[in-house]
């Protein structure tokens, strides 16, 4: 496909509350690993040139030491790279961030539970991004039940939303019953969970439930799958390879197209620090899989 025909717009749009996003977005976790700050900034600008208007981030995406545990030298925050690259922000850009987790160079990963801790994380995101209001904030849950009940944590964010610091709320790393638990406190515009062709498919019914409720379902690690932070496996699997060969595309593009075929409410946020991969990923917005492809991919 000629580069000037590649556009995130080809996947259509979805609404997060009153904000409209193109379904092919960008995950910013990997840019902190870029050895070169200018390269990360150029990549973010290129994403927007290619039509991306939905960027996922977190204040704890920071190297060295943050989520990817890589890098040396001065701290490089994804949120600050986004600000350096894209501020003043275009009107239509929607930046989605998450709280509930933090990273401290001394303490490592920390979970934020209390209203004061959550507020501090919201304020950190506002400061690093240079914003007065965050478009969407996901409450990111950890593995255990947490020191403070979910409804109280979500309630604390609902108060910050009422105060105008947050426009819309979402949930991350959640089970279906947890979506029910927070019903009535504030609307949930998106769910962000680990999900992909061969990762956590027990969530298939949850993906459908989100669609029925008008909630966006945003898989993370749609490429990396269960490889998580270590990245995509070299072994893509026979079915993915075969469909890629049939369409003359890469296995990663098949994975992203499959993601987008899971429903109009399913959004893609592939992450990369490589501009050639970025271009390929966005080109997948226009890749249409046949019913036979989808059956083969399971
Ligand atoms: N809510 C949560 O708890 C949570 C957790 C983790 C992540 N996230 C969000 O989800 C986003 C997506 O996750 P992710 O960035 O870790 O993983 P991903 O998009 O599933 O995969 C990224 C991996 O695939 C490689 N890759 C990307 N495009 C490629 C291509 N076209 N060809 C070959 N390899 C390719 C990347 O390496 P290269 O850099 O070399 O391209 C990297 O190793 C994150 O950026 C973050 O915003 C959310």
From TrEMBL:
Give the source's domain of life in one word: Bacteria
Limits of the NADP-dependent oxidoreductase domain:
23-297
What are the alphabetically sorted keywords of the record?
A: Oxidoreductase
Which InterPro entries does this one have? Answer: AKR, Aldo-Keto_reductase, NAD(P)_OxRdtase_dom_sf, NADP_OxRdtase_dom
| Any GO CC annotation of this UniProt entry | cytoplasm
Q: Name one GO molecular function term.
A: oxidoreductase activity
Q: What Pfam families has UniProt attached to this entry? A: Aldo_ket_red
The protein's name in its UniProt record: Aldo/keto reductase
Q: Which organism is it from?
A: Micromonospora orduensis
Q: What is the lineage of its organism?
A: Bacteria, Bacillati, Actinomycetota, Actinomycetes, Micromonosporales
């Amino acid at each position: 496909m000629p580069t000037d025909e590649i556009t995130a717009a080809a996947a259509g749009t979805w609404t997060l509350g009153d904000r409209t996003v193109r379904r092919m977005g960008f995950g910013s976790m990997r840019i902190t690993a870029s050895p070169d700050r200018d390269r990360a900034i150029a990549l973010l600008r290129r994403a927007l040139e290619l039509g991306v208007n939905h960027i996922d981030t977190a204040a704890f995406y920071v190297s060295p030491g943050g989520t990817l545990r890589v890098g040396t030298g001065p701290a490089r925050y994804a949120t600050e790279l986004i600000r350096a690259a894209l501020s003043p922000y275009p009107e239509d850009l929607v930046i989605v961030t998450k709280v509930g987790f933090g990273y401290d160079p001394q303490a490592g990963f920390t979970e934020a539970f209390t209203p004061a801790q959550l507020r501090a994380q919201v304020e950190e995101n506002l400061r690093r991004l240079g914003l007065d209001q965050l478009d969407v904030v996901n409450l990111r849950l950890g593995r255990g039940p947490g020191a403070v009940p979910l409804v109280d944590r979500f309630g604390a964010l609902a108060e910050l939303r009422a105060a105008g610091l947050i426009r819309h709320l979402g949930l991350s790393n959640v089970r279906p019953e947890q979506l029910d638990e927070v019903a009535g406190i504030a609307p949930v515009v998106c769910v962000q969970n680990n999900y992909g062709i061969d990762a956590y498919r027990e969530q298939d019914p949850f993906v459908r439930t989100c669609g029925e409720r008008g909630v966006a379902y945003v898989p993370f690690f749609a490429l990396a799958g269960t490889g998580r932070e270590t990245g995509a496996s070299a072994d893509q699997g026979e079915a993915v390879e075969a469909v890629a060969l049939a369409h003359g595309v890469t296995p990663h593009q098949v994975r992203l197209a499959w993601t987008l075929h899971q429903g109009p409410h399913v959004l893609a946020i592939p992450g990369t620090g490589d501009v050639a991969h970025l271009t390929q990923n966005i080109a997948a917005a226009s890749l249409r899989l046949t019913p036979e492809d989808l059956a083969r991919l399971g």
